[in-house]
Design goal:
The protein has about 475 residues and is an alpha+beta fold. Helix content is about 30%, strand content about 30%.
């Protein structure tokens, strides 16, 4: 893997990415990558320190002739989403990412690649280490825990950064320049329930939903992809309504910012309904697969006989939960009235667990409009509270309001058009970029976000375009040479 990736152009970028990807860096477990980044800055002899929350800041003076330009902040996040295929044996806590080249793409073997936001971080590292790239004074800001709470950005205090312009390198289409993003809030519903002894004359079944694409719960939410939790709930609802199905255990989805790809349920039905249940469910499965034949051609739904569980969920609670999950909104809730084709508000029913008398449902609600974000969050809260759940909101973070009169935006648009012969798409995105949060303590900082093309982020299908990385690197180098002069 190492030489294959390291020989790609631009080598400065891919070598730093290979070094970074050798370091385990799960969200909330960034100790090793923090030390790696501090060692990197200290080895270069640059001012390097971490703040109270453990973001890492590295400062590099301007190259000769660039001292009169505004100081910039180049920013990326150190953590990565950890997702793997069920049949992939991999320990994210101890292993580096196993990468390979597939045509124009760099991929990982059965896991997420970490190009989100590893390519952005590697870009900054390459600039810091360079001796022949002209640039103004730089503050490199490497934040932690972007993927599971934005805690690095949320806890960065005002006054630490000196830069006037922020370049966030965390978007995923190379023809886009982002000037706004959605905020988000975690919606969590929990409750306890009584378990009952499995009735005599029952048969045990395992229902498995797998093979879905998954993806980023913000950037991919409009694509009509299947949500394993919603699909599973349809199967449970049908089985309960027609055959008195009872749930023993259920585990669906994983991370809040990933569209759930898999769900597994252990259930029972009365033995007398065996043949009728299997026949009826196959019709339901065929209907679901027909609905998703275009967006989810690899969808697999299996219903297999299994050992009889000893206990099942209380029927009254189960009915309420199934109906609440059916009622709970998933996907696009509202499109923006101000920016064409922009998802304004959405929800991802990300994680559902039923086991040992405890129920938990985790959602991530996003919106570029704060009031709309909480409108949808309250709709979800109402659905789950009606079935006796305790619902909490946590981890709320603001969106980033677009500034169409940005000075750095003008610079990037002109450079992109000169290099590519066409205008870039100036957009706001439906993901949680850190710009909105950082702007709360640095309201006067001019911010912009861009990056190379990355597909399938937050899923094992994550891949980074090699040709796009070359285009993006050329773009970065010219941006650095054209940072506006100090006032």
């Amino acid at each position: 893997m190492s030489n294959e990736i390291r020989n790609l152009e631009p080598k400065a970028l891919w070598n730093q990415f290979a070094d970074l990807n050798a370091v385990p860096r799960p969200s909330k477990k960034e100790e090793r990558v923090i030390e790696f980044m501090k060692d990197f800055g200290n080895r270069l002899g640059l001012e390097t320190f971490e703040d109270e929350i453990r973001n890492v800041i590295i400062r590099k003076p301007a190259t000769p002739g660039m001292e009169n330009r505004k100081m910039i902040v180049m920013q990326g996040h150190l953590d990565m989403v950890h997702q793997k295929n069920n049949d992939t044996v991999f320990d994210f806590d101890t292993q580096g990412i196993d990468m390979y080249v597939d045509g124009d793409w760099v991929r990982a073997k059965g896991t997420t690649l970490g190009a989100d936001n590893g390519l952005g971080v590697a870009t900054i590292m390459a600039i810091l280490e360079s001796t022949n790239i002209p640039h103004p004074a730089i503050e490199a800001l490497f934040t932690i825990d972007e993927e599971t709470g934005m805690t690095g950005a949320l806890n960065l205090k005002g006054g630490i950064l000196k830069g006037e312009i922020l370049l966030n390198l965390d978007t995923e289409e190379d023809d886009e320049i982002d000037i706004g993003c959605a905020g988000g809030v975690d919606v969590t519903a929990v409750r306890s329930y009584q378990e009952e002894e499995t009735p005599e004359g029952s048969a045990g079944y395992t229902i498995t939903v797998k093979g879905l694409s998954g993806g980023h719960s913000g950037m991919d939410i409009h694509k009509g992809l299947g949500n394993a939790n919603k699909i599973m709930n349809r199967l449970l609802f049908d089985g309960f309504e027609n055959f008195g199905l009872q749930i023993s255990e259920l585990s669906g989805g994983s991370l809040r910012n990933a569209i759930p790809r898999e769900s597994v349920a252990k259930v029972i039905i009365a033995s007398m309904y065996d043949e009728a249940y299997v026949f009826d469910m196959q019709e339901t499965i065929n209907d679901i697969k027909a609905e998703f034949k275009t967006t989810e051609p690899n969808l697999v739904i299996e219903i297999t006989k299994s050992d009889l569980p000893k206990k099942v969920m209380d029927l009254g609670v189960q009915e309420g939960v199934i109906r609440a999950l059916y009622a709970a909104h998933n996907g696009v809730y509202r499109m923006s009235a101000d920016m064409p084709d922009l998802v304004e508000t959405s929800n991802n029913i990300a994680r559902v667990v039923i086991k040992d008398g405890e129920l938990s449902v985790g959602c991530l609600t996003r919106s570029s409009v704060e009031s709309s974000k909480f409108d949808l969050a309250n709709a979800l809260r109402s659905a789950f509270e009606l079935t006796g759940c305790e619902v909490t909101f946590s981890g709320s973070y603001p969106g980033w309001t677009p500034n169409v009169k940005s000075e750095i935006l003008d610079v990037l648009v002109q450079i992109y058009e000169k290099q590519n012969g066409e205008k870039p798409r100036v957009v706001a995105c439906h993901a949680g970029l850190e710009c909105g949060i950082l702007g709360t303590n640095y309201p006067d900082m001019d911010m912009i976000s861009f990056g190379p093309t990355i597909h399938g982020a937050h899923s094992p299908d994550e891949r980074a375009s090699i040709s796009s990385a070359q285009k993006y690197w050329k773009f970065v180098l010219e941006i650095l040479q054209n940072i506006p002069q100090k006032n």
